[in-house]
């Protein structure tokens, strides 16, 4: 298991660096593939509960949401989401024998949860494309720097939470959802996020220290919430992993559950205080 995780990281991290740096159509296509894979995993998990979601309309709706983020128009995003909800509710009324209220509600939730969350990765990468941030590797477009913040903070959170929880963890955080998580681990993860972003964000990326610390606090709180949210889905469906696309890591949702919560918060913080 550990060797598979390492191999996936060896391949995935350089690929992520290149794709984020290159941006443009390659970045959009990658995010779209990850979002569609997440939707597939979400539908597959709920199928275990005999709940069949609107699979293809869901893919279409998610891609439209991502496209709106790519174009940078929030009004279009809300319009697409509203129309998607109306269409699914109409399908529920017209085809009520084959598409129940429960299936409609889960479909709407999944499309919004996945489509909107991944949209914020595109929005972060698109911020201030013409502005350059001084970094240790020279000037980089601001969007690249901003996009790395939730990833670095989340990875540091996961690592620190695991190390601290394994060594000193005693008090359970949410035993009904994730018995392995502890309060001590969560606090260690928070410290890890703050330390990583205060160090890397300020020293390497040129983010003001105070802002880097505050972003670290946001990420440190939101990351475990995202993790526990997906754990609740999996426990509800009775599955261990959301999928098996990433060897040693499970599915896409297993790897991006925390990012789906931290990216929107980082985006709005930057919009409010750094731009």
Automatic annotation (TrEMBL):
Subcellular location: Cell membrane
A cellular-component GO term for this protein: plasma membrane
Record GO terms (molecular function): phosphatidate cytidylyltransferase activity
Keyword annotations: Cell membrane, Lipid biosynthesis, Lipid metabolism, Membrane, Nucleotidyltransferase, Phospholipid biosynthesis, Phospholipid metabolism, Transferase, Transmembrane, Transmembrane helix
Any Pfam family hit: CTP_transf_1
Record field: transmembrane: 53-72, 78-94, 106-124, 144-164, 185-203
Biological process terms in GO annotation: CDP-diacylglycerol biosynthetic process
Known pathway: Phospholipid metabolism; CDP-diacylglycerol biosynthesis; CDP-diacylglycerol from sn-glycerol 3-phosphate: step 3/3; Lipid metabolism
Catalytic reaction equation(s): a 1,2-diacyl-sn-glycero-3-phosphate + CTP + H(+) = a CDP-1,2-diacyl-sn-glycerol + diphosphate
Similarity annotation: Belongs to the CDS family.
Protein name: Phosphatidate cytidylyltransferase
